[in-house]
Design brief:
alpha+beta, 3-stranded antiparallel β-sheet, 2 helices, about 35% helix
Length: about 70
């Protein structure tokens, strides 16, 4: 997947429009300071309240997030 905000949005919009409640999207590289556009995009999704975001930091250099769709 992409790491630029604009490309992430295109991919997200495509996948999200086909998902049902409970489906997930996994984001690799949710790593502040290294992939700030990924972090910004995931945080924006979280603030929109259409997905529940779970963040996993395996180290200071590696993070992940998965988004669970809350509504159809």
């Amino acid at each position: 997947a992409e790491h630029k905000y604009k490309d992430l949005k295109i991919e997200f919009d495509y996948v999200s429009s086909r998902q049902k409640k409970g489906d997930i999207i996994f984001f690799d590289d949710y790593t502040p300071g290294l992939f700030d556009e990924v972090v910004e995009f995931v945080d924006e999704i979280e603030n929109q309240h259409s997905y529940k975001i779970n963040k996993i930091m395996s180290s200071s250099l590696r993070g992940y997030a998965y988004a669970t769709k809350l509504t159809d």
